[in-house]
Amino acid sequence: MTARLAAAFAPNRPALIAFVTAGDPSPAATPAILDAIVAGGADVIELGMPFTDPMADGPAIQNANIRSLAAGTRTADVLAIAKDFRARHPEVPLVLMGYANPMVRRGAEWFAAEAAEAGVDGVICVDIPPEEDDALGPQLRAHDIAPIRLATPTTHEARLAQVLDGAGGFLYYVSVAGITGLQQAATGSIEDAVARLKATTELPVAVGFGIRTPDQAAAVARVADGVVVGSAIVDLVAQHGGAPAPIEAFVRSLADAVATARQGVTA
Amino acid sequence: MNAPNSFRNQPPTGANSFRQQPDSRGHFGQFGGRFVAETLMPLVLDLDREYRAAKADPAFRAEFDDLLEHYVGRPSPLYHAERLSDALRTGAPAGMGAQVWFKRDELNHTGAHKINNCIGQILLAIRMGKTRIIAETGAGQHGVATAAVCARFGLPCVIYMGAKDVERQQPNVFRMKLLGAEVRPVTSGAATLSDAMNEGLRDWVANVHDTFYIIGTAAGPHPYPELVRDFQSVIGREAREQMLARTGRLPDMLVAAIGGGSNAIGLFHPFLDDPSVAMLGVEAAGHGLGGSEHAASLAGGFPGILHGNKTYLLQDEDGQIAEGHSISAGLDYPGIGPEHAWLRDIGRVEYDSATDAEALDAFQLLCRTEGIIPALEPAHAIAAVARRARTMRADQIILANLCGRGDKDIFTVANALGVAI
């Protein structure tokens, strides 16, 4: 349901988008981790689908993929986790993030139908650029699932229209040319980029890659509609064996920082 | 002879040509494409534009041809393997047992066909103003060829290599280092070729402004499968002209080993519109296609998306990529170039496989009958030649690509034969 996603991005109320890999450290542990993320105050859940070859990810999320697959996580488990989450949290938007091959393996129509049935609101597919949209995009849109597109520092002006054509949910700005979880971009460059993107689209613009602390999250929340935090949460999952309490505390610190930044925006 | 090196110099294409793929989006039928992260898309589009311009530029072609002749040592010979042909006739019915010929690309500088492609890509890199080169390697042949051209043009070079491959290919690791390359062992995943390619893509995405990625096989996002094929097609163009000059006719069957498939597509492509020429690609069957220990993506895989293209992949029912296995580190990639996937589906090329054991037998057979130590990759092709030659008439011709020499493999072979050296 794309409406649930739209509701998460209110004007002057930046959203906190929290990423975790499904099945890390085990499929059974993920529901409690997701509940902790919601309890901590995240506005959108980004649930990673594990893949053997996560080409765009840094060591933290690579290792989360390896732990998840080693625990035997299957596509059916990921969909069941999403479906159970939807039953427990009817209003919290959930997007699936992952790579093309596990999504298209049984056919794009199969995947889109199953994801819709599970109550998924959007899909971020790292390696399906707009040029290859017909591999999955039409099926997602037909099931009212938002194909969430990525823009990067290398996405020049002339290309933006193509990136936005058929996009839904929010525009995910990858703030550094690189992989997940490592360096952070300068706040000034993020502000400029977000302004540029917002001039071309009605979609909310969320910023991710390299945002690891409440301070960094607050700085981004001042200039963007959403803040994505992934590797730092995944690191906590690894560090505490999937125990929910430290994750909830950390997400709350991020949510508080984003909320403070919101007040700064409205003041 | 006048070597038809230049890649413009192809036989003419007709209306129903098999040589007009891919389309402008890089699709070979349902395969190929540009399945990369957004960060890389503008770069891949730039490369496409620059490749079109280079292809039309006589100066680029002249430099490519000159380096192939004077640096690589082309044209490589076309060799009639008479003693091997005779040996394969033993036990065949009277009048059966084809003539076996080899395209001798193992005589190239750095010992394999890989250098043809590296020359083309480094010229493109320089043309695009890139100042740093990265590459992935499995057995180390592409790494050595890349390191060589980087030394030749004075560009810094980082080679990603699975930690397991670093261990089993020490001589090539040392060669790369001698040539000035930095070899970075990759420990993620299975620590082999597929993981090295992931790491190459991760480096590229973080260094798009100055870095050129020299992909080693005819796979990856468009235009790589096309440009690697074009650079490697010098093999088939030479072979076609040499065969016509020597025998006055075309071969009846072409045979080449397939990992990603660059030596095979290089040999096959210039012959695709010659209907009398049959073609056989030979995948690595490892311990046998019955189990999971093989690297035959066409025989045992399903269409999927990996490393920038849609093609046949070894994978499970959830789309998780399986590890390939082969005694040849150059063949144990879980995918295959998208043009081969297309050629197989339309039926223009036949694909078969050879096991580790068959490749070892063929390796020894060639050593003893012809005094040539082949790499384990073409040993798979020779194993298929041995099977097919007996089923063909004695006046027919099989041309196989001897795409690499076996010096790098003597430790692996000794180990497999239970010999301590």
From TrEMBL, chain A:
GO molecular function, one term: tryptophan synthase activity
EC class name: lyase
Keyword GTP-binding (UniProt): no
Keywords tagged on the record: Amino-acid biosynthesis, Aromatic amino acid biosynthesis, Lyase, Tryptophan biosynthesis
Gene3D superfamilies: Aldolase class I
SUPFAM superfamilies: Ribulose-phoshate binding barrel
Superkingdom to which the source organism belongs: Bacteria
EC number: 4.2.1.20
Pathway given in the UniProt record: Amino-acid biosynthesis; L-tryptophan biosynthesis; L-tryptophan from chorismate: step 5/5
Residue positions of the active site: E46, D57
Catalysed reaction, written as an equation: (1S,2R)-1-C-(indol-3-yl)glycerol 3-phosphate + L-serine = D-glyceraldehyde 3-phosphate + L-tryptophan + H2O
PROSITE patterns referenced in this protein's UniProt entry, alphabetically: TRP_SYNTHASE_ALPHA
Quaternary structure note: Tetramer of two alpha and two beta chains.
Family: Belongs to the TrpA family.
Function: The alpha subunit is responsible for the aldol cleavage of indoleglycerol phosphate to indole and glyceraldehyde 3-phosphate.
Protein name as annotated: Tryptophan synthase alpha chain
Annotated organism of origin: Sphingomonas aurea
Automatic annotation (TrEMBL), chain B:
Pfam family, one: PALP
Keywords, alphabetical: Amino-acid biosynthesis, Aromatic amino acid biosynthesis, Lyase, Pyridoxal phosphate, Tryptophan biosynthesis
Pathway given in the UniProt record: Amino-acid biosynthesis; L-tryptophan biosynthesis; L-tryptophan from chorismate: step 5/5
InterPro entries with a match to the protein in the record: Trp_synth_b_CS, Trp_synth_beta, Trp_synth_beta/beta-like, TrpB-like_PALP, TrpB-like_PALP_sf
Amino-acid biosynthesis recorded as keyword: yes
Region of interest called Disordered, as start-end residue ranges on this chain: 1-24
Transmembrane segments: none
Cofactor: pyridoxal 5'-phosphate
GO MF entry, a single one: tryptophan synthase activity
Modified residues (N6-(pyridoxal phosphate)lysine): K114
Catalysed reactions listed for this entry: (1S,2R)-1-C-(indol-3-yl)glycerol 3-phosphate + L-serine = D-glyceraldehyde 3-phosphate + L-tryptophan + H2O
Compositionally biased intervals (Polar residues): 1-23
Domain Tryptophan synthase beta chain-like PALP, residue spans: 73-404
Superkingdom, natural source: Bacteria
EC numbers: 4.2.1.20
Record-stated family: Belongs to the TrpB family.
Function: The beta subunit is responsible for the synthesis of L-tryptophan from indole and L-serine.
Subunit structure: Tetramer of two alpha and two beta chains.
NCBIfam families assigned to the protein according to its UniProt record, in alphabetical order: trpB
Protein name: Tryptophan synthase beta chain
Organism: Sphingomonas aurea
Gene designation per UniProt: trpB
